[in-house]
């Protein structure tokens, strides 16, 4: 029989030997996920004998991690805006960069206390952006839309996990086509569409290109296909005064800004991520 500490030391050692930089943290997260323990419970219980098949299950996850699989998929859950999101290889792992988009969206929604405002998260993936809005602004109604059934299943699960089923709806829709009839009008549209230029997808880290869904990354020859399709058509379903917020990749913001200027917003703004990249573009106040 082994204690949690024995398993922890062995896991740390193996991950370190495999070149995993944060071996200590990752070993703890993997064991905590298998044993269903919080950080406090993990440290509290280190001296206890591990239950049943803990060691084998930890070993399985360690093997996956050693094969470069992203930690988020190995754990099956990842945090976004402090909220837990279920993830699997059918959806992109929520990135810290995308929290900037969620924060800016919340900033806009907090400018008014009018209830019942409608928000659309287009290309929702896990649902992380829309769900954090639904959770932190409970008086808004959020529609989470994606063309991937795998994503919609996860998004639905994440609505339940975060107790926002009351003010969210999950819907199949394709950003490359016109908005479905009867979708209604929105106060705010948020979107983190695929934006990696096709030729760059193969140059991404192994842990990204070998595991994450390419259809959530590949934005066409210059990465801008989704903006080109969405800006002319999906801005029609904004209410007058409504806004649209996009995440984008390095060097894309101004090009997207020019597309937004053609639609006539009161202003187009850019927001930088901590690395100084213009990561979020906003068309504010649809005329
Ligand atoms: N930020 C992601 C990456 O660089 C791309 C996300 C996207 O295409 N929407 O891997």
Structure description:
With 287 residues, the chain is of the alpha/beta class. The chain is built from twelve helices and nine strands. It has two domains: 4-67; 81-284, Vaccinia Virus protein VP39 (Rossmann fold, 3-Layer(aba) Sandwich), CATH 3.40.50.150. Helix content is 40%, strand content 20%. α1 (4-17) crosses α2 (23-35) and α2 (23-35) packs across α4 (54-66). The longest helix has 14 residues, at 4-17. The protein is elongated. The structure holds glutamine. Residues 95, 97, 192, 194-196, 204, 208, 217 line the site of glutamine.
Helix and strand topology:
Layout (H helix, E strand, L loop, with lengths): L3 H14 L5 H13 L3 H6 L9 H13 L4 H5 L1 E4 L2 E4 L11 H13 L7 E5 L5 H9 L4 E6 L2 H13 L6 E5 L13 E6 L6 H4 L4 H4 L15 H10 L3 E10 L5 H11 L1 E8 L5 E9 L1
Parallel strand pairs: 3-4, 3-6, 4-5, 6-7
Antiparallel strand pairs: 1-2, 7-9, 8-9
The structure holds glutamine (GLN).
């Amino acid at each position: 029989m082994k204690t949690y500490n024995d398993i922890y030391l062995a896991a740390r050692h193996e991950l370190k030997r495999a070149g995993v930089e944060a071996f200590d943290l990752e070993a703890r997260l993997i064991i905590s996920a298998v044993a269903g323990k919080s950080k406090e419970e993990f440290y509290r219980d280190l001296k206890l004998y591990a239950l049943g098949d803990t060691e084998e299950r930890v070993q399985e996850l360690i093997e996956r991690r050693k094969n470069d699989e992203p930690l988020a998929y190995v754990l099956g859950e990842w945090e976004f805006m402090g909220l837990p999101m279920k993830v699997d290889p059918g959806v992109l792992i929520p990135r810290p960069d995308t929290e900037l988009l969620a924060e800016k969206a919340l900033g806009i929604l907090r400018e008014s206390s009018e209830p019942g405002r409608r928000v659309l998260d287009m290309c929702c993936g896990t649902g992380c952006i829309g769900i954090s809005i639904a959770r932190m602004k409970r008086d808004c109604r959020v529609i989470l839309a994606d063309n991937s059934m795998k994503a919609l299943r996860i998004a639905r699960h994440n609505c339940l996990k975060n107790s926002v089923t009351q003010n969210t709806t999950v819907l199949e829709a394709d950003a490359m086509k016109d908005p479905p009839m009867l979708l209604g009008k929105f106060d705010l549209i948020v979107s983190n569409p695929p934006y990696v230029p096709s030729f760059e997808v193969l140059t991404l880290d192994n842990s990204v290109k070998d595991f994450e869904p390419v259809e959530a990354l590949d934005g066409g020859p210059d990465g801008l296909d989704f903006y080109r399709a969405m800006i002319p058509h999906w801005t029609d379903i904004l209410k007058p005064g409504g806004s649209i917020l996009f995440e984008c990749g390095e060097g894309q913001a101004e090009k997207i800004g020019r597309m937004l200027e053609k639609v006539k917003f009161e202003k187009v703004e850019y927001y930088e991520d901590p690395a100084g990249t213009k990561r979020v573009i906003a068309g504010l106040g649809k005329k």
